[in-house]
Amino acid sequence: MNDDTVTVMSALPVVLLLTSLVPALLIFALREKQTVLRTTLNLAGAIAKVVLVIVLIPRVVAGEELRAEFTWIPGLDIVFVTDTFSLFFVALSAGLWLATTIYAVGYLEGSPNRSRFFGFFSLCVTATVGIALAGNLLTFLIFFELLTLVTYPLVAHRGTRAALRGARIYLAYTLGGGVALLLGVAWLTLEVGPVEFRAGGIPEVAEFAARDPLTATVIGAVLLLGVGVKAALFPLHGWLPIAMVAPAPVSALLHAVAVVKAGAFGIIRIVEDVFGLALFAELGMLQALAVVASVTIVYGSVRALAQDDLKKRLAYSTVSQVSYIALGAALLSPIATAGAIVHMVNQGFMKITLFFCAGLFAEELKLSKVSQLAGVGRRMPVTSAAFTIAALGMIGLPPFAGFISKWALGLGGLDAGQPWVIAVLLTSTVLNAAYFLPIIATIWTSPRSESEGSDEGTFPAPARRSGWEAPASLLLPAVATALFVILFGVAAGWDYSPWVLAQIVGEGAWP
Amino acid sequence: MTVIAFSDVDVLDMLVVAAVAVTAILAIAIPRRVGATIAFLVFGLLLALLWARVAAPDVAIAEAALGGGVAGALLVDALHRRQPAQPNRDRRRAVAITAVGAALGAVTFAALATVLSRLTAEPADLGPLALEAVERSGVSHPITAVLLNFRNLDTLLEIAVVVFAAVGAAALSRDRIRTVTDPGPVRRVIAVIIVPALVLLAAWLLVAGTSEPGGAFQAGAVLGAALIIAHLCGVRPARAAGGRALVLVVAGLLAFILLGGIGLAATGTWLALDLSWAFAAILAIETLLTVSIGVALAMLFLAAGSRDDAAAADRAADAPALGGAP
Amino acid sequence: MAVMWALSFVVPLLVAATIAALSLGAGEARTRARELVVQYAWLAVVPTGIVASLDDGALKTVDWMLFGTAIRLDEVGRPLVLLAVILYGIALAFVPRSISERPAGLNGFLLLCFTANVGVFVAANLVTFYLVFAAMSFLGYAIVVHDRTTSARRAGAVYLVMTVFGESAVLGAFLLIASEGVTDVLDVPAAVAASDARDVIVALLIIGFGVKAGTIPLHVWLPLAHPAAPSPASAVLSGVMLKAGIIGLLRFLPLGEGAAEPLWGGLLVTLALVGGLLAAVVGVLHDNPKVILAYSSIGQMGFITALIGAALLEPAIAPAAIAAAVVYSVAHGLIKGALFFSIQVWDLSRAPTWAVVVPQTVAALGLAGAPLTAGFIAKYVSKESLGDVALPGLPVVALADLLPWFAVGSTVLLARFAIAMSRRSRRRTAGKPISTTAWAVLALAAAAPVWWLATGFAPPLTVPGWFSPGPVVDQSWPFLLGIALALAAAALARRPRFRDARLLHPRGDIVPEGDVVVLLERATGGTMRGVIRASGVLGATRDALVERVRRGPSPMPTVSGVQARLGTWVVSGALAVAALAGALLFVVLAGGGG
Amino acid sequence: MTTLQLFMYAGAFILVLGVAATLLVRDLIRRLIALNVASGGVMLLLLALADRGDGEPDPVPQALVLTGIVVMAAVTGIAIVLARRVEQLDDDLEEVEQ
Amino acid sequence: MSAAALVLVPVFLPLAVGALSAVLPRRAAATLTVIAAVATLMVAVLLGIAVLDAGPVRLEVAGWAPPVGILLAADGLSVVMIGLSAIAVLAATLVAAADDHFAGGHAFWPLVGAAAAAVNGVFVARDVFTAFVLLELLTIASVALVALGGTRSAAAALRYLFVAVTGSLFFLLAVALTYGHTGTVDLARAAERADDTVIVGAIIALTVVGMAAKTALFPLHSWLPVAHPAAPAAVSALLSALVIKASIVILWRIVEYFGPLTDLAAPLATAVGVAGAAAVLWGGVLALRRDRLKSIIAYSTVAQVGYMVLLVPLVFTASDPQVAWIGGILITLAHGVAKVAMFLAAGALATAAGTSRLDGLEGTISRMPWTVAAIGLAGVSLAGLPPTLGFVGKWMLVQASLDAGAWWWLALLLGGGLLTFAYTARMLRATFNPPGDFSGARELTRPARTVAIVPLALAALSVVLGLIPWLLIEVLSAAPMGGGA
């Protein structure tokens, strides 16, 4: 929110929230058999949100800010503001939620407890949109905790022993983070009064830091610790691979849209809109964050190498990729900030495609191990093509979205006078290549018989006659998001492309 | 601090206090139940005597009737019913517990004594204030004035305690109260002589309460005792159990609440009694309270003794109803 | 003109897309349509040919694409684009007739490669260059691994690993350059020269483009990839894709910018010389014609990098050296392409043997630099452009004198190639006359376009008279010496005593293909496995740690034990009395004082 | 040592004795007796405080004591009923949680 | 009816209805009690409005001024607490009316009336002796209610009776000391006249120990896990949510009035705080160990009591005691609402699944999603996680402890929340379907509709209050604690 934006009080932000809250509550009330009603509710909510976002983008880019607030306790309000950065994240969530909903409807065909699933599914996006629209640190905290609570039943959805164990560990990590965040927020609110996000940092916080730098640093560290758990920074990433127990649409949602992104969004909010980059650097926190992010990037990639389970490998890859965003946020240059912000979208679309494809492989051919994927290219060419596009994007090859953010982060690193950033980026690229390219190679080139497939190398025959390799509701989202990965890469120069929007947001943080 | 005759403490007080302390220790220390109960009864009576010494006649009567009487009846009845096998008491553990108890008790007593020693000796100003307000209370006896006018909310709540204790007890033993069928000659005589006397005493206490020591509680206790004896002696209508009795018990409480409502309507504040009709109101409510307390205490006793009465009353014939109920 | 450029890029992509779409579903109509499209796929290159010849060289930009893509056809790019058009055209025509299965897939990828390759030659800003360079490299993998044999997959794997490292190096260099604030390709050399991270950038550029241009330590993928790929693909791979590395070095190295680069220049030249020597020595020991040609390419690429190294050493000669490098690249492209095509023609075409052998020998002579051929002009022009540049290490020997020895080496190699070809049997199955004649024209008339190109570069380059005695003599002695050596070796080989001498009748097992690659493979395989094991160990220790913490001495059982004891009436009663005593005691003691 | 102090200390003694016994005795009826003794002690203390000066004693504490006695009677009543049920079912005296 | 007259309605109405329902048939008694609960709720709202306008509402019963007469006053705390009691009683009685299994017998109705009256009385009492009598009435009613819980509940009820009456006796001793020292039993006048620090210290100490026993604060908590599970579900809900609150409010009142008078108060308060901290940890750990639904929730109460007394030390140390007071009160309110929901839901699950052991509850999440959702949401509120009311209270207590620089309370608040959600998650996990059998087909006796709806409605209420708590806070700050009635 730089100074020339005009703030308009309006209920639109709340409507944005309701588009997924109302369906959620209604779906909870549905009986298991009312599939059609449930799907229509789901899709209606998702489409309504996307339409609203499309309506809002031009207005917000033109500098108009919508604000809705109501008092929580005297002196502290719950505030929703649609500034450029929040709308950016809402757009990401809305888009990917639509795709994931379609995918989930197809994926969970015939499985039990779907009302419960889709209810919590919509609540999860409500929480994510709430986090995005939060105007002050308190609202952010409320929805951040809500996200933890709402994703717990999703991870534990299947009810198997492993699912429950995974959910328990996930809960332990994220609740621990939530407690740290509560401490940080309460303490800062006590010292400085209600903490309203302002691009470039809040003057009161700056003057408080001048007064008492040690406490400011401690508060900053605690806040980062709080959001760091969800952003899967190095020591706190343990839950991500374990949460792979969840069904594929949940993993897709968790990794690409909601939880991990909320963590990264939180980091950027705290670093840029609460403390402000200059102050954060002055307190020495920025370098620390950069180092932690870099360590996570390399660690995530290294661990991904050793995973034979496809979803685990993607999980570790997420651990590494999200820290790109943290790294970008931790560099003192507008390009790096823009790079971090755009990577939220790029990583979102790429990772969700990968998970969709992983889900497709698991659903259609019951393959979940990388070693089993030999020669899948012939049996499921479209899915494999989508997987390849997304994987190449993750490595950061030019025509795809991943390159944009890697290029921006590289330039940002140099601009911020930290040349070692390039070394980190390059090692990460090589490591990414080391764990993605072999998959692509096995998918396309190695003949079927070589894999230890139980039958004599042939795949289970396609269940349907329509000639499609997988049900449309699973295939279309994967292909759509893959196309977006290309589009965001190729059309990065277009006025409303994520890269241009990210730059607009990035400049906001540099008054 | 006025000095009394030959020594600062009247020898009689010292005697009574010593007696009370000794009986208290006995009631606590005697391991067998029978001994403890007897000691407790004696303790109750001595306590009543002590209250007289402390110039609290009303309390003395109440103590004698409720503390010694009804509570005693309940306790004796409990003993009479059944003596559970004493769990094997290994000596060492018992000694340890008493030692710990004694030590902690001593410490508490010492601390409490020092705290009490800091209390001043002059009387509180509350007394005179209350006494001069008595004229405007509608009754002449200060205790009754406090109970039924100044702090009538306490009394209402206290009645509620008794009523709901009775309701609770009745619920817990609803199904097992039996009537006493063949009381035998001795009991019939008692019933004929004592029950009317007790009822008369209760009535007198009730009326006297407005001017001298007495009042609803004491009368209620005596009435309760009368009912219990009547029941034990085969007076069937005196069987304080079942719906009818409950109505009587609850009536007292409902009346009191109604009185509060009337007070509100008349004077604008709950339970306020206008001087003009204060006396009548107090007397009326006292009578109802007496009945209510009496029946409630009888119910408590019967509920407590319920199961085994059935055993005693297995002899067939129903005794002819004796004299009307009060 | 911009529309033409758009068309030139879109048409091949469109054709590739239709091939992909058609090959998706099954059905008779689809396969027949697909066959047709594959037959005429080579037409897709024509628009690029037209636009390349007519283009006025202006900068054309598409802002909304990537960070703003821009292309510009300058005099360095034009000839290479035309070379690409020719070679890709012929290759696309050859594929349907070649024996490789799934020709549609191959043609599709060739078309994609063509677009990327042309893009590399015309890219005008850093990001576009990196886009097309990366695309071309990774599409190259698809071609190399097309036959899906185990050797093809091994070659593909090595190619991929080398490409990834090359990519990263180029990306690193470009990021450093971009941070200097420059994007247009033309003013990159000046920026690099001026930047303080100059050495790092140059090093990264040399590594990055060295991989693609096959300079010595990074050449290992070449001898593996060429035999693995189908021959038309190898022709394109060797003829045009290697040139991408060359144009990279030409565009981005600080040639002719202020201070000389003795260190990097010297390094490049030495690597080139070693390359030339190694290529000749190892190439001879193989009997598979494609491997021999691969090593010959390594030698020729070494020659061009020597030119670039010289330009680094002596900035004055830069323009001449660049022009010479371009001429030599085009010449080598045309001839090497022709030779690779000749293998397929030799195998499959029904044309009489003499009709195949004559164009082949003319091409081989051209490669060796014999007079009246393209090679003659290229070598002469290069030697002239060098002037008296000498290696900083040994100033006594001028670089120009060393170059002829390249010619000796390549002549011996070509002799070896001829022997190997003679042993191959001819199956004479298919062969449309048009594509064979096109090949023949390419082989025979290679000299003309090269001569015309050299005159185009006249000012810095001096064009040799066809028959002027000086150049003819300079060029022919290395060629003749080579022939002599080959004949001597052949004579020796026929002697009964040496019938089974492995040295004289090599079957390619003394030095395995890609020579150093085996060591490299083992090394990368080792590190890869090491890293995987390390990460496994890391994961294991972390889990063990978490497990130990979780199973640590939990207070739980003791607590519920104590609660059980605490629960009895007596003990909880005692606690209550104790609490009372404690509280009152505290009050009295603490208060007592007050 | 004035009468007031005599009564007060006696009251305190009986109270502490009763409370300690209530909390430490396992047998239900003896525990109930101890409870009544303890309440007697508190009433004594209150009445002693009511009759401090030589004038008429303060009626309010006496009314309070009266109420207290009635309440204790009710409590004893219901305690006896419960004790009876516990003993009839020869329930485990040591009421620990199931 | 002037505002002052409203004060006694929450006491007399339930009492009258209780008395009537002793003699009326079950159906009539149930409807009457529900109507009384609704009426009390409305009166609470009216009182709230009155307090908002003119601060504390005072009522001199029977028209006599304090030293002689009894003063009752409704301030912010009383209004909020009467609201809680109305809601809790309404919920419990609705469920009990729907399924007699929850009530445990016909006597449930009169005794619930008595308990409600007593609790509301305690919230408005400003006279220590009246408070004593109210506590006794509450004890009698609660003990009888617990005893309704079937055969084995008599022993638990008796133990509860002894502990409660002993606690009351300690309090009666404090009343005696108050009268002895200040010559009056009215709180405000006594506070004005008290000057001897030792006696005031003794009064506070006795009240603390007495009330600690009655509200099951840590060292003296052993009776609660015995008594609450033994009682019928609706009774356990009322006991945990409401009955223990009466003694806590008396503790708060004594601290409010007598705290500032003596410097002995601060160390006593810290002792209470330490006991509270121990309670949170002890209760939490044991809740993780027990495998019966009701025992877990009972130990959760033991833990949450720790939080409720946590405001006592904070009031003395924080620079702005109001924040600590309001935070503590909101946490108590949140605990009340959540605990009723949790116990009723647990009762529903236990009756449906036939057992209250955790391992017997498999598959219930599919058959009774609303009930399990209620437990989940209630657990969230107990743990003080947003968006529930518990979070508001916890937020303010965290602010207060940060303000007071008391790190240990802070760690306790944060750690305690985690522990709370740990055992809630444990309960939730037990209800998931066994792998494979997705329909949770195991035939469960389907509970009545209201039994499923009421707990969820309460849980939803705690979320709504969590999002818009400012109304409650306005009422609480309109008549602040320590401001004196």
Automatic annotation (TrEMBL), chain B:
Q: Does the keyword section mention Cell membrane?
A: yes
- Keywords for this protein: Cell membrane, Membrane, Transmembrane, Transmembrane helix
Give the domain of life: Bacteria
Kindly give the membrane topology term recorded for this protein: Multi-pass membrane protein
List each copy of the Na+/H+ antiporter MnhB subunit-related protein domain by range.
Answer: 188-299
The record's subcellular locations are: Cell membrane
Q: Which residues cross the membrane?
A: 12-30, 37-54, 60-79, 94-116, 156-177, 189-209, 215-233, 245-271, 277-302
Q: Name one GO cellular component term.
A: plasma membrane
Query: Per the annotation, which location comes first and is thus the protein's main one?
Result: membrane
Per UniProt, residues of the MrpA C-terminal/MbhD domain are 19-81
Q: Which Pfam families match?
A: MbhD, MnhB
Family under the similarity heading: Belongs to the CPA3 antiporters (TC 2.A.63) subunit B family.
Q: What name does UniProt use for this protein? A: Multisubunit sodium/proton antiporter MrpB subunit
From TrEMBL, chain C:
Q: Name one GO molecular function term.
A: lyase activity
Q: Which domain of life is it from?
A: Bacteria
Alphabetically list the UniProt keywords: Cell membrane, Lyase, Membrane, Oxidoreductase, Transmembrane, Transmembrane helix
Q: What are the BP-aspect GO terms?
A: ATP synthesis coupled electron transport
Spell out where the chain crosses the membrane: 41-59, 80-99, 119-144, 156-178, 200-222, 234-252, 264-285, 292-313, 319-341, 362-382, 402-422, 434-455, 475-493, 566-590
Instruction: State the membrane topology.
Output: Multi-pass membrane protein
Protein name from the UniProt record: Formate hydrogenlyase subunit 3/multisubunit Na+/H+ antiporter MnhD subunit
- Tell me what organism the protein belongs to: Microcella alkaliphila
Automatic annotation (TrEMBL), chain D:
The record, for InterPro entries, names:
CPA3_antiporter_subunitC (IPR050601), NUOK/Mnh_C1-like (IPR039428)
Pfam name, any one = Oxidored_q2
Q: Does the keyword Transmembrane helix apply?
A: yes
- What Gene3D superfamilies does the annotation carry? 1.10.287.3510
The source's superkingdom equals Bacteria
**UniProt membrane topology term:** Multi-pass membrane protein
One Gene Ontology term, aspect cellular component: plasma membrane
Bilayer-spanning residue ranges: 6-25, 32-50, 62-83
Q: Which residues form a coiled coil?
A: none
Predominant localisation class: membrane
* Record's keyword annotation contains Lyase: no
Q: What family does this belong to?
A: Belongs to the CPA3 antiporters (TC 2.A.63) subunit C family.
Spell out the protein name for this chain.
Answer: Multisubunit sodium/proton antiporter MrpC subunit
TrEMBL record, chain E:
Keyword Zinc-finger listed: no
Topology relative to the lipid bilayer, per the entry, is: Multi-pass membrane protein
Q: Which GO terms describe its biological process?
A: ATP synthesis coupled electron transport
Please provide, in alphabetical order, the Gene Ontology terms of the cellular component aspect for this entry: plasma membrane
Compartments (UniProt record): Cell membrane; Membrane
Keywords assigned by UniProt, alphabetized: Cell membrane, Membrane, Transmembrane, Transmembrane helix
Q: Where is the NADH:quinone oxidoreductase/Mrp antiporter transmembrane domain?
A: 125-418
Q: Which Pfam families match?
A: Proton_antipo_M
What coarse category fits the chief subcellular location reported for this protein? Answer: membrane
GO MF: NADH dehydrogenase (ubiquinone) activity
Indicate the transmembrane segments per the record: 28-52, 64-97, 128-148, 160-179, 199-218, 230-252, 264-284, 296-316, 322-347, 368-386, 406-425, 451-473
Q: What domain of life is recorded for the organism?
A: Bacteria
Q: Does the keyword RNA-binding apply?
A: no
Q: Which family does it belong to?
A: Belongs to the CPA3 antiporters (TC 2.A.63) subunit D family.
- What is the protein named? Multisubunit sodium/proton antiporter MrpD subunit
- Source organism per entry reads Microcella putealis
Tell me the classification of the organism that encodes this protein: Bacteria, Bacillati, Actinomycetota, Actinomycetes, Micrococcales
